[in-house]
TrEMBL record:
The gene is LOC115875111. The keyword Membrane applies. Pfam families: PseudoU_synth_2. One of its GO terms (biological process) is enzyme-directed rRNA pseudouridine synthesis. Keywords: Membrane, Transmembrane, Transmembrane helix. This is RNA pseudouridylate synthase domain-containing protein 1-like isoform X2. The chain crosses the membrane at residues 6-24. GO terms for molecular function: pseudouridine synthase activity; RNA binding. Belongs to the pseudouridine synthase RluA family. InterPro entries: PsdUridine_synth_cat_dom_sf (IPR020103), PsdUridine_synth_RsuA/RluA (IPR006145), RluA_PseudoU_synthase (IPR050188). It comes from the Eukaryota. The keyword Nucleotide-binding does not apply.
Length: 281
């Protein structure tokens, strides 16, 4: 009799721990970092989809539905406006317009390239230069269409429908990750192609640490892919958006900084100055 009650108690205790952990995990999927009459700006965590056809799957969409139910639009298939996206593996800033009119303004800004997006990443190896202008088209990789992998137009035999793509890369820090040379970089994508930064880094020979797809499925020992959308500048007639997050890769396990080239604050200025010198804005 006692053993039966004890067994039931253990099962209930374990169940409570499971649901508590699940609850806090859901709370950690995103954080709202800016809220106004026109916008929600969120900081998305890594390994979370923006939305899904499965409405019970944990996504940015479900986070918004649970956190801001008053903004849910049942006329939209995914309930909210998503004028731009982040990869499943990428963390960082995502702009959510509250209305259709605001969404049009945001979409127009992205199309006109008046927005400025900045990403921080940890990549394998040591860059050959502190500034690199990666200006090569990106298209669908015919070798792996099932995972929607991309490649550069340098791989002519496999690159379908290549489109112009340009990313400015700047070295912030040089160091080691798990005893191998690595570099922390700041990226400023001028265009917005699928997987653009990941493909361009791989093209340079400096794959992003933790990028399973573009390391030929070899880089699977890290807790996540180290790519983060750290800053968004979105000028518009309603309200100018200039938001940023902290650098999530400052104190990660395995990373040791050996040399500082630029701080983040000065890095934003310098990468803009370099971009202006190339007349690519």
């Amino acid at each position: 009799m006692f053993s039966t009650f004890y067994f039931i108690w253990v099962i209930l205790f374990i169940s409570q721990i499971y649901f508590i952990k699940k609850y806090f995990k859901k709370c950690d999927t995103c954080q709202i970092i800016h809220r106004s009459d026109n916008f929600l700006i969120i900081n998305k965590q890594a390994d979370i989809k923006i939305n899904s056809n499965n409405k019970n799957e944990e996504t940015v969409q479900t986070f918004l539905r649970n956190t801001c139910p008053e903004l849910t639009n049942q006329k939209l298939f995914h309930e909210f406006y998503f004028p731009h996206r982040l990869d499943y593996s990428t963390s960082g800033i995502l702009c959510i317009p509250k209305t259709r009119e605001v969404c049009k303004i945001v979409s127009a800004a992205f199309s006109a390239r008046t927005t400025k997006k900045y990403y921080v990443a940890l990549v394998r190896g040591v860059l050959s230069s502190n500034f690199i202008d990666v200006n090569i088209s990106v298209g669908d990789d015919l070798r792996e269409p099932q995972i929607q992998k991309m490649c550069t137009s340098s791989e002519k035999s496999f690159c379908k429908n290549p489109r112009s793509a340009r990313t400015i890369v700047m070295a912030l820090e040089q160091g080691i990750y798990n005893n191998y040379p690595a570099t922390k970089i700041l990226c400023r994508p001028i265009t917005g192609r699928r997987h653009q930064i990941r493909v361009h880094c791989t093209f340079l020979g400096h794959t992003i640490i933790g990028d399973y797809t573009y390391s030929n499925r070899k880089d699977n020992k890290t807790p996540r892919m180290y790519l983060h959308a750290i800053k968004l500048v979105l000028p518009n007639k309603l309200e100018d958006i200039n938001v940023f997050t902290d650098d999530p890769f400052t104190h990660i396990k395995g990373w040791k900084k050996l040399k500082l080239f630029q701080s983040l604050s000065s890095g934003y200025i310098e990468i803009d100055r370099y971009s202006n010198s190339l007349n690519c804005l």
